[in-house]
Write a structure and sequence with these properties.
Radius of gyration: 56 Å
Order of helices and strands: HH
Shape: rod-shaped
Largest sheet: none
Strand content: under 5%
Number of strands: 0
Number of helices: 2
Helix content: over 70%
Oligomer: single chain
């Protein structure tokens, strides 16, 4: 029986040593878990900030309906602008065509007048030169 008591005492001593080692390991693990908990707390705070920013952004984001309405408005505006520009270009074209026709007619009239004036000068100059030649020939003879 004494052997059994001795064995039980040895077992109890060995169990105490093991428990001390296990408790030391558990204390180390507690420290690690505290560090992990702090990291998770930091991650949770960051995720909360991201969630808040996403919630803020969600209120400012356009929906498909908003985009479709904007597209329809832009198409309508562009169609109106195109029609206005076509009308304006037609008016400008008509005005320019009329103005160019007027300028062309005036230029032709001016050129005709200039041509008549130049012919008159040429004829007058030829008559004057011919008269001078006859006068010079008379004096020379």
């Amino acid at each position: 029986m004494e052997q059994r008591i001795e064995k039980l005492e040895e077992f109890a001593a060995d169990a105490k040593e093991r428990l001390v080692r296990i408790e030391a390991r558990l204390d180390g693990m507690d420290g690690r878990f505290d560090g992990i908990d702090r990291r998770f707390d930091g991650i949770d705070r960051r995720l909360d900030g991201i969630d808040k920013r996403l919630d803020d952004m969600e209120g400012r984001m356009a929906t498909k309906a908003d985009l479709a309405a904007m597209e329809a408005t832009m198409k309508g505006g562009l169609a109106t602008m195109e029609a206005t520009m076509k009308g304006s270009l037609a008016t400008i074209d008509a005005t320019m065509t009329g103005s160019l026709a007027t300028i062309d007619a005036r230029t032709k009239a001016s050129l005709a007048t200039l041509e008549v004036t130049l012919i008159k000068w040429f004829v007058a100059t030829a008559i004057t030169l011919t008269s001078l030649v006859f006068v010079v020939v008379r004096f020379v003879k």
